């Protein structure tokens, strides 16, 4: 989970929203300075509205269809649960059956090393304050991290895995989502990153596509006004965070990168057809 690149400047007929779009219409009572209702919103009212919108945003993410069921003979869903006084870890993650293909061991080893190190996660939860973009100055109690995943595949041995991590900090107004995307070429036994997939010099054009999509959706009212364009620095940090999702390439961003945690979107999806000229020739067959 998303956004489609389209222009409505020359056409008064508004296109139907893409089913992957994680956005919601503006609330006129909050935005219209002449609305009587807007004069009586308390802080509690605003927080309740934000909580409702964040819930719809999360539900949209969870509802994104993937290929998990189709791949159930290849990908096993495993879990880790760890509960202590100060934190809870609740992990659901993919495990590829090594008997199905020798390269699956490479994927599993990477998952174990990079994402299933519970000691490292505990240290992050207890010490890392940089994630707290919606904090309150209150005492911290039990924190929680939930990890789950979606998986997408192509007929030519590309696995795209979206790992989404939900963090509950007692000092936050809202929970916060973080994302990691893994693209794995089964036949070549290797992970694919932005520079492996896109031609040299594609960064600026991809960034422009992403921001054009965000700008058009903000203008059309499909996204809350308090989202913003992706900065070049954040693009460079998140450029590997993409999945090939059917006929789209979807770029995922943590909360507070392009939208606050309580509204907006987690991702921007661009049709593969619009990006073909930016994809390396030898990578194009795996998109089929």
The top-level CATH class of the domain at 75-194 is Alpha Beta
- What are the low-pLDDT stretches, counting only 5+ consecutive residues below 50? 1-39, 134-140
Alpha-beta content class = alpha+beta
For the largest sheet, list the strands in their spatial order. Answer: 1-2-3-4-5-6
The CATH superfamily of the domain at 75-194 appears as Fervidobacterium nodosum Rt17-B1 like
Summarize model confidence as the mean pLDDT.
80
Query: What is the helix fraction of residues, given as a range?
Result: 25-40%
Strand content: 15-25%
Question: Sheet bearing the most strands, described?
Answer: 6 strands, mixed
Q: How would you sum up the global shape?
A: globular
Distance between the termini: 21 Å
The whole-angstrom Rg is 20 Å
CATH fold naming of the domain at 75-194: Heat Shock Protein 90
Order of helices and strands: HHEEHHEEEEHHHEEEH
CATH architecture of the domain at 75-194: 2-Layer Sandwich
Number of helices: 8
